[in-house]
Design brief:
Elements: E1 20-31, E2 34-45, E3 49-54, H1 60-68, E4 75-80, E5 83-84, H2 90-95, E6 98-102, H3 113-125, H4 130-140, H5 142-146, H6 157-171, E7 175-179, H7 187-202, E8 206-210, H8 214-220, E9 223-228, E10 231-237, H9 245-249
Parallel strand pairs: 3-8, 3-9, 6-7, 7-8
Antiparallel strand pairs: 1-2, 1-4, 4-5, 9-10
Helix pairs in contact: 3-4, 3-6, 4-6, 6-7
Length: about 260
């Protein structure tokens, strides 16, 4: 069987909690002649959350797309759960347990809440696993249970995010890449979305958070990477960046470095 058709398996099993789950090493990426990422390196630890922050155009969403296999790298390597996934197609990466959610709907608007969930659960678990998976989804997100027969397109923005997160929580993905999930939501709804993200993290799913609400992301995250013009300008613990995050995001010189 060709490499493209073979389901990859790690040599030593899934990585342990606290060990590198996702690793980017000197990754570059371009859109035609425009280079968006320059030698980006970062690590998401298993069981932890990493906040990826930066100004608009810094390259945050490009990192998300590269990790998910939606944009090819021009250099460097990407490893996930002990496997080299550089250049692998998006569907194959998704099968390994890496999901991505964006600020868009991420749901089938014409289907009901339960039909959305059933479609995902049946594909991943088979028919026999659907009933139990639905029970777990509704237990974690009671509001979805109240709206199970409602078309997903008529849900509020926050409820649509919860529907997308319910799939990730129940299917126990290894890593969730969250790209501006709270974009356009009212503050009270952002609270609900972050409460849902806390559930996902507590379930054992690691998080790569790309977020406009930087303060919220930093509360949930253990580590932070700051991008500026496609380059990493800070990579370390959240506690180490307090008081100078604004300067780093805006690309101002770091006084501590001088």
């Amino acid at each position: 069987m060709s490499a493209a058709g073979r389901e990859p398996t790690p040599a030593d099993g899934p990585v342990a909690d606290g060990q590198p789950l996702l690793e980017l090493r000197d990754v570059g990426a371009s859109y035609g002649p425009y280079q968006a990422l320059f030698e980006v390196s970062l690590t998401v630890r298993a069981g932890h959350a990493l906040a990826l922050v930066g100004a608009n155009g810094a390259g945050k969403s490009t990192v998300a797309r590269v990790v998910s296999g939606l944009v090819p790298t021009t250099r460097g390597t990407i490893r996930f759960d002990g496997r080299d996934i550089t250049g692998r197609p998006a569907y194959e990466i998704a099968r390994m347990g890496l999901s991505q959610l964006t600020e868009g709907r991420s749901v089938f608007a014409s289907l009901t809440v339960e039909e959305n969930l059933t479609l995902s659960f049946r594909r991943a678990l088979g028919r026999r696993g659907v009933a139990d998976a639905l029970d777990r989804a509704y237990a974690a997100f009671p509001r979805l249970g109240e709206r199970r027969t409602q078309s997903a397109g008529t849900l509020s923005g926050g409820e649509q995010r919860m529907l997308a997160l319910a799939r990730v929580l129940v299917l126990e993905q290894r890593l969730l890449v969250v790209d501006e999930l709270s974009f356009g939501l009212a503050p009270v709804v952002v609270d609900e979305v972050y409460a849902a993200l806390e559930q996902v993290l507590a379930s054992g799913t690691s998080l790569l958070l790309i977020e406009q609400h930087v303060d919220r992301a930093l509360v949930l995250a253990d580590d932070v990477v700051v991008l500026s013009k496609g380059r990493v300008v800070y990579d370390g613990p959240v506690a180490g960046v307090e008081g100078r995050l604004g300067d780093l995001v805006l690309g101002r010189p770091d006084p501590a470095a001088g």
